[in-house]
Structure formats: structure tokens, C-alpha cells
Design goal:
The strands form 2 sheets. A 3-stranded antiparallel beta sheet has the order 1-2-5. It has 3 helices and 5 strands. The two termini are 19 Å apart. The chain is of the alpha+beta class and 91 residues long. The protein has one domain: HU Protein, Chain A (Irregular). It is 43% helix and 30% strand. Helix 1 packs across helix 2.
Length: 91
């Protein structure tokens, strides 16, 4: 399911226009993105949680040349599924 399919599903299951559904989805995703950019954890009980993981700087290798390369510190978003989601997918 992509963003447009999510908007259509929201529109079909409620009595709102496509523009209103798109606005709701935008607000939802923008709020999640803003919270994660601040380093906050986003948790949707029973479904999943999103959090930012911080990595320290380390020395890696260029796979093409084999030369050592310093990789700077970085932050990456992570997704962790909830128990109810795992159970529904595994059923």
C-alpha cells in the first residue's frame, strides 16, 4: 500500500473528500517525521514504533579499492513491529 492507496482507503471508509483525506494523511506523516527529527520515539500501540538510532564514527573500507575510509557519525530511522502486527502477519 502506498500513500495514494492509504488516502483512498481513508476516503472510502469515512464520509470525507479526497482532499480532506490527503490533508489528514499529510498531517499524520508530518507529525511523525517532525517527532523523529527531534529524536523522539513514535509509538502506535499494537502496530509499531519508530525511533532514531545513533551511530558513532568508524573506519570502514571502500569495497572497490579496499582503502580505509572514515565514516562519520550518523542517525538512521528504525521500525519495530508490535506484537499484534506480528500475529496478524503470521496468521
Amino acid at each position: 500500500m502506498n500513500k495514494l492507496e492509504l488516502i483512498s482507503a481513508l476516503k472510502d471508509k469515512t464520509d470525507i473528500s479526497k482532499n480532506e483525506a490527503a490533508k489528514i494523511v499529510e498531517i499524520f506523516f508530518d507529525s511523525m517525521t517532525d517527532a523523529m527529527a527531534k529524536g523522539e520515539r513514535v509509538e502506535i500501540r499494537g502496530l509499531c514504533s519508530f525511533y532514531v538510532k545513533t551511530y558513532k564514527s568508524y573506519v570502514g573500507r571502500n569495497p572497490k579499492t579496499g582503502a580505509k575510509v572514515t565514516i562519520g557519525p550518523k542517525k538512521l530511522p528504525f521500525f519495530k513491529s508490535g506484537k499484534e502486527l506480528k500475529d496478524r502477519v503470521d496468521a
